[in-house]
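Same chain as my last thread, 284 residues:
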Amino acid sequence: MHIKQWIHDIVGLFFPVYCPVCGIPLYVPGEVICLICELKMPRTGYTGDPDNPVAQLFWGRVRLEGATSLFRFEKGSKYQPLLHLLKYKGQKRIGIFLGRMLGAEIRSHPFGHADYIVPVPLHKKRQKKRGYNQSEVIGAGVSRVTGIPVNTKIIRRDRDTDSQTEKSRFERWENMEHVFTLQEDAALQENTALQKDAALQEDEALQKDAALHEDEALQKDAALQEDVTLQKDVALQKDTASLCGCSFLLVDDVVTTGSTLEACAETLLKIAGAKVYVATVACA
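reply #2:
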């Protein structure tokens, strides 16, 4: 008997681990759900079908290269605790497990050849409260199987939206307007603010220097500010150019109406030549 298995068995006597789906004890080290529940998971089989129901959610709304989900999610289903434990109880190992399953599902399809995995971002306040982003954890699992790097620096969530649970499809869409921005856009806004601050400082310096007759010092200061701004603009253009023509795999836990993923995809499609795929663990 392997030492790891022996230690697992001893620990299991005092601190048993149970399958979150059916409740039976788990005896294999690292096991997240039992083999029977894994085999009985209601998988969609959508990945190879470009006209599947998840893909159809986005028809006429946003241009995607493909969309899929690993399994069907129904309220009250015995698989519901998986997502609840991941999202609200800190069970990140469930996210890695489900991400690996999703990765295995898509790796032989175009989804599995994207340049970057982009998890749907949480607002910084919500992520701080929860301690992590469940979509990032799922993305990490997908990455382990596909080898696609996870990139959390491309888009960000600027507005913390209300819960979507009780909203209609239109209300969900309306709730997601102007929620996400490209990090490059954020940098551009910051750069514009810097330029405004620099202009204000220059005006103040001009007034002061006019009184003190120090025109030469003003010119040097203005030239320095202009040089700094120029360097920031060049860096921004390089960052944007490095993403042009890339393909992105948007990853999330559940897709219902698709409003959140639609808003994320529209943001990514602002990048020249971008292609976007969507993959979620579950579809409701």
